[in-house]
Backbone:
């Protein structure tokens, strides 16, 4: 069972929640904002479990849930009647009827305990009508109710919603803290932890996933191999390799496929940046892919700063095309041709 001590960094959020627990002044509404994988759901779960715990205790300076009482066991199993997780049928929106049924109407049914907590994942998917319906509950909530909205896009909310919630932005975590967490808590070897941290860009959840995901290792090696062969292969082989690298895995959904493509683009970005760093410093000390030094060195001997910059800009153009729903394979083919032209 996760506790406050397991939350890496995010001291401002932990301090506020701890103060609320110590004074028993739990707000009626919170928004936790951060990228996918940044720990929003974990933080909300820790806070909810601790609020409802029947035997809270201080451990290492934190008010924590005991993990042993009936409430904690229900929360851990996902069956606590006073922790309500809002679900939605459509993958792209949360409708007004879903908010009314699962929050606005339900909130007036008294809890089994002293609190009733609603967690709304993907809060940015709420339609304007759904937000307006929720607003009425936020304006006059029962004293026992707390609504926690999780979002990766704070700009998607009406100003009136934001004004009635305490907003917690999740900040990027320092690389050294994530590295230490991976090595000490997850028992990840140092070189693998450092590589995951480089790609995670301050996102603890993403770093954890990268260390556990065998597909990422395959994708990383395949992307680097493709770049190293790009000058010598024909377009048909290039396309075939892209299709093999980015083919949907069995049982994957659209969100998983988007993550796969973003990881592929991240590998290319860091690889090209390594080339730029080596060109500037002439040393492998700060390279992410130091094991590819031979190829990196060969590129710096024939490419100019402008050509390397062109490659980085081409990667960003590909990201833009994919966000604009241009065909994924076509976008990546265009990217590979742009990189090939500058090698």
Residues:
């Amino acid at each position: 069972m996760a506790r406050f001590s397991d939350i890496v960094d995010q001291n401002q959020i932990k301090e506020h929640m701890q103060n609320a627990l110590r004074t028993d002044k739990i707000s009626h509404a919170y928004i936790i904002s951060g990228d996918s994988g940044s720990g929003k759901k974990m933080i909300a779960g820790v806070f909810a479990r601790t609020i409802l715990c029947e035997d809270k205790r201080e451990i290492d300076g934190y008010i924590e849930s005991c993990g042993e009482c009936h409430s904690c066991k229900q929360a851990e199993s996902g069956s606590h009647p006073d922790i309500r997780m809002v679900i939605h049928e459509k993958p792209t929106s949360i409708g007004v009827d879903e908010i009314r049924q699962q929050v606005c109407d339900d909130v007036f049914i008294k809890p089994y305990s002293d609190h009733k907590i609603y967690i709304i994942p993907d809060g940015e998917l709420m339609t304007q009508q759904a937000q307006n319906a929720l607003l009425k509950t936020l304006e006059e909530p029962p004293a026992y109710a707390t609504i926690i909205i999780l979002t990766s896009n704070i700009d998607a909310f009406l100003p009136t919603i934001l004004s009635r919630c305490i907003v917690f932005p999740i900040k990027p975590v320092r690389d050294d803290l994530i590295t230490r967490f991976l090595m000490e808590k997850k028992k990840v070897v140092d070189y693998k932890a450092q590589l995951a941290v480089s790609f995670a860009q301050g996102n603890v959840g993403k770093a954890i996933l990268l260390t556990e995901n065998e597909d990422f290792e395959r994708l990383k090696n395949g992307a680097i191999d493709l770049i190293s062969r790009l000058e010598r292969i024909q377009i048909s082989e290039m396309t075939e390799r892209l299709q093999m690298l980015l083919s949907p895995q069995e049982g994957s959904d659209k969100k998983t496929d988007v993550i796969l493509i973003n990881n592929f683009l991240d590998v290319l970005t860091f690889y090209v940046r390594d080339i730029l760093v080596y060109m500037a410093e002439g040393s492998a000390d700060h390279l992410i892919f130091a094991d590819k030094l031979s190829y990196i060195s060969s590129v710096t001997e024939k490419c100019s700063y402008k050509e390397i910059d062109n490659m980085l800009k081409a990667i960003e153009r590909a990201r833009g095309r994919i966000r604009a729903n241009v065909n994924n394979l076509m976008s990546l083919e265009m990217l590979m041709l742009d990189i090939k032209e500058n090698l």
In short: The CA atoms of residues 19 and 25 lie 8 Å apart. The first helix runs from residue 11 to 23.
